[in-house]
Amino acid sequence: MPPAPTAVDPALQRRLGVDLFNRVWTILELDERTPEQVDELVHAAHASAYHWRQVGAPENFARSEWQCSRVYAVLERPEPALHHARRCLELCEQHDIGDWDLGFAYEALARAHALDGDGAGTRRWLAQAEEQAGRIAAADDREHLVAELATITRPSD
Question: Were 121 and a residue from 113, 126, 132, 151 both cysteine, which residue would form a disulfide, CB within 3.0 to 4.6 Å?
């Protein structure tokens, strides 16, 4: 087994997790990305997830998996998008995480299945996400989820 990485100050790890998470959003919001920005996008998402795994709570782990799934969905890579969406849901279920985190786990699964061309999977997870949206306590979180669900390509069959 390789040696553990050098210990990093928890406050620094938290800061890196936050900063990298936000950097991912900056790059995702670009209309076009260079190949170098695509590389940075993938690496920053995974680096953020790594740092959150060191110092965060299960909600941070789930959100990191969700962000990795979104990155791969934007890059039109269904297999890793599905993998990270499934991990997000597993973490929500394992740690009894509900509210908007669970809704976005379902959203990630619907988006990844739509990208993969799986109409039945898309419909299943959209229905779960829409149902969960009704359970979200904060109106702005609920509206954000509903808005994101509207961006998923619905199956025509």
Answer: 113
